[in-house]
Request: fold
Amino acid sequence: MKADLGDLKAFLAVAGARGFRGAARTSGASASSLSEAVRRLETGLGVRLLHRTTRSVSPTEAGARLIDRLTPALGEVEAALDVVNSFRDRPAGTLRLNVPVSAARLVLPAILPGFLAAYPDIQMEIVADDNFVDVLASGCDAGIRYDERLEQDMIAVPIGPRVQRLATAAAPAYLDRHGRPEHPRDLLAHACLLGRFASGTMTSPWEFERAGEVVRVEPRGPLIVRVGAATDLSVDVAVAGVGVIHLFEEWIRPHLESGALEPVLREWWQPFSGPFLYYSGRRLLPPPLRAFIDFVNLPPTLPPAPDTKIPREIA
Reply:
């Protein structure tokens, strides 16, 4: 059976979004046209690919197997078509990046405006996701991560600030009421605002370092938020005087500068290596990705060593 390439892409979009409406929002096609494409594909194959309910869509066993084989195959098709871009005056096409929410907020805003202005024929698609994913299997060209465990054929280049810190802070009114910690272990007596990854892993323990001494504490507190999606809520709650927050210094810098938040244990803030852009070395680089790497003007480097000291909660 000869399947239409558009129908295959529609199926992947619906399966990835777990619904026709979600796929319509990300793909630009209508939900009805996506539904018709999937129905046409299932009819041609003679097998159901998606379980459909009124609330969700999920792949059948046959659909899951097709996704596993189809995703990298379509990626190679798109990469092959992108080769034609080398004959154009300037690169064109779509560049898909899978990045953590922190990178979408703290790294890319300083890069994308200039890049998109320099390459008007390139469209960026940013997937902000704090889960660890196979960038190729997810349909992305590259990703950004901290201390990512990369396979041998992955290439990593530094992107953004080379050194960052996790800052600890609280509202002055909170510290006036509860006292100002003088040692990281003092945080055990404070209300701390915590995070949890989608995997269920907590962002604690919090790690501090001063003069070679490393201290890890597992604080408790009245609020736990999903890392990434609800981090701003945690910041707002800290500003409101509910407790102590432990987050990227860049994320809360405006509040530190305005005085809404006061630094806590500043001399203990631990520096760590900045993020890396990573991509597969197995395939010909799509011209949009090549242009992006050239734009950030960073030569390829080895991935960070396994013992690189990067706080676990942001890795």
In short: The domain at 1-70 is CATH 1.10.10.10 (Arc Repressor Mutant, subunit A).
